[in-house]
Design a protein that fits this description.
Largest sheet: 8 strands, mixed
CATH superfamily of the largest domain: Type I PLP-dependent aspartate aminotransferase-like (Major domain)
CATH class of the largest domain: Alpha Beta
Strand content: 5-15%
Mean pLDDT: 96
Number of helices: 14
Low-confidence stretches: none
C-alpha cells in the first residue's frame, strides 16, 4: 500500500493572538489609511523593544530600503557595496536612484557579506555599505562600521530576516545608521506584506518623516508645528494601511513567543540532522558566539548542484515544500546591467548551487519536522 502523503508546506501564515480583533477595531474606529492608532502602536513597540531612535512602518521592506536610498542621497553613479546573495530589493532600491550595486562575496559559514573583502571594493564613488543578515545571523558589524567610519560611508542594515536577532546584546537593524525590517508572510512576524525603517542616526530623523509622507511636512502639521502642510522634498507613499498595522500589532504582542517557537524547531532540525553532517554528506548552518539568532530559516548545503536538485525533488515527491534560495544578483540579467563585481564571487556561486531550505513555520509540529528529517535520511540511504 502506498504511503499517504500529508503535505508539509515550506511556509504557512498564522494567527497567534488578537490580529482579527484588532482589524475589527481599526474598521470600527473609522481609520483605515496609514499613520493611524495601530501604526503608531507598532512603531512605539519597535522603538521601545529594539531601542532604535525612530521607527516608521512601510508597505514592505522594499519600501524601507527605497526610503534608505533616498535618505542616503544616492545619485547616478554612486556605488553601494552589498552581497550578491540577497533578494533583489537590496539592489533595486539603490539602482532606482541611479546607484551602482557593487557585489562582494560572502563567508562560507554564515553566508553573510565577507567584511574582509569590503575595503578593496571601496572607491571614491562609494556611498553606502549594505550588510544583509542572512537567516537572521548577524554580519560582522563592528568591522563594517569601522570601515564605514574610516571612509565616511553610511551603513544600511538589511535586517529583513533578522527581527529580534542580536549582536553582542543589541538588536539587528538598530546598529547601523539605518535598518530595514520585513513583515512579509514568509518572515517570523507577519502582516502579509509590510516592513519598517529604523532610524538610528539623528541626522536622518526629520527628513525620514518627510520622505515617508510623500515628500510633505504633514507630520509637522499634525504636531501643530506648521499651520499647513506642503510639498518640501522628494518622497512617496510608503505607509501601510491601518488594516496591515492592526494585524501586525497582534503579532508584535506575541513576537518573543513566536521567535522562541521557531528557535525550538530550528534546534530540532540541528539535533536530528547532525549525524548526516558528521558523516560528511551535508553541511548545516553554523553559529557564532556573538549572536543570538531568531530561528528565521533553516537550510542545509548539499555536496553538489546535482545533489541539491535531486534532494529537493525527493522531498517534493513526499509532499515536502523544500526550496533553493537566491539566484545570485551578479549573475542575473539586471545585476549584470546595473551592478559590477567588487570581488571574486566564488563562495556565492558555490553555495547558491548547493543550498536547500527546509520548511519552518510557527505551527509546524514535531511530527512534521520528523517527517522532513526522515525523508532526508532516506535520500542519503541512512537509518534515522
Amino acid at each position: 500500500m502506498n504511503e499517504k502523503l500529508i503535505p508539509i508546506p515550506f511556509n504557512k501564515p498564522f494567527i497567534v493572538g488578537k490580529e482579527l480583533y484588532y482589524i475589527a477595531q481599526a474598521v470600527l474606529g473609522a481609520h483605515l489609511s496609514g499613520d493611524g492608532p495601530f501604526s503608531r502602536r507598532c512603531q512605539s513597540w519597535l522603538e521601545q523593544t529594539l531601542g532604535c531612535r525612530k521607527a516608521l512602518l512601510t508597505h514592505s521592506c522594499t519600501g524601507a530600503l527605497e526610503m534608505a536610498a533616498l535618505l542616503c542621497d544616492i545619485n547616478p553613479g554612486d556605488e553601494v557595496i552589498m552581497p550578491s546573495f540577497t533578494f533583489v530589493s537590496t539592489a533595486n532600491a539603490f539602482a532606482l536612484r541611479g546607484g551602482v550595486p557593487v557585489f562582494v562575496d560572502i563567508h562560507p559559514d554564515s553566508l553573510n557579506l565577507d567584511e574582509r573583502l569590503v575595503e578593496a571594493a571601496i572607491t571614491p564613488k562609494t556611498r553606502v555599505i549594505v550588510p544583509v543578515h542572512y537567516a537572521g545571523v548577524a554580519c560582522a558589524l563592528d568591522e563594517i562600521l569601522a570601515l564605514a567610519q574610516g571612509h565616511d560611508l553610511v551603513v544600511v542594515e538589511d535586517a529583513a530576516q533578522a527581527l529580534l536577532s542580536e549582536y553582542y546584546g543589541r538588536y539587528l537593524g538598530t546598529i547601523g545608521h539605518l535598518g530595514c525590517l520585513s513583515f512579509h508572510e514568509t518572515k517570523n512576524i507577519i502582516s502579509g506584506e509590510g516592513g519598517a525603517l529604523l532610524i538610528n542616526d539623528e541626522r536622518f530623523q526629520e527628513r525620514s518623516e518627510i520622505i515617508w509622507e510623500k515628500g510633505t511636512n504633514r507630520k509637522k502639521y499634525s504636531r501643530g508645528q506648521v499651520d499647513k502642510y506642503t510639498w518640501v522634498d522628494v518622497g512617496s507613499s510608503f505607509l501601510p494601511s491601518e488594516l496591515v498595522a492592526a494585524f501586525l500589532y497582534g503579532q508584535l504582542e506575541q513576537a518573543k513567543k513566536i521567535v522562541a517557537t521557531r528557535c525550538r524547531i530550528y534546534d530540532r532540525y540541528c539535533r536530528s540532522l547532525a549525524p548526516l553532517e558528521e558523516e560528511g554528506v551535508l553541511r548545516l548552518p553554523s553559529r557564532r558566539d556573538n549572536t543570538a539568532c531568531n530561528g528565521h530559516l533553516f537550510y542545509l548545503i548539499a555536496r553538489s548542484k546535482q545533489e541539491q536538485v535531486q534532494l529537493i525533488q525527493h522531498l517534493h515527491g513526499a509532499g515536502i515544500g523544500a526550496v533553493f534560495h537566491y539566484v545570485p544578483l551578479h549573475s542575473s540579467p539586471a545585476g549584470r546591467r546595473h551592478g559590477r563585481l567588487g570581488s571574486s564571487m566564488s563562495v556565492t556561486d558555490d553555495v547558491s548551487d548547493r543550498l536547500v531550505r527546509l520548511p519552518l513555520y510557527y505551527e509546524m509540529t514535531e511530527a512534521e519536522t520528523s517527517a522532513v528529517v526522515k525523508k532526508i535520511f532516506e535520500f542519503y540511504k541512512m537509518d534515522w
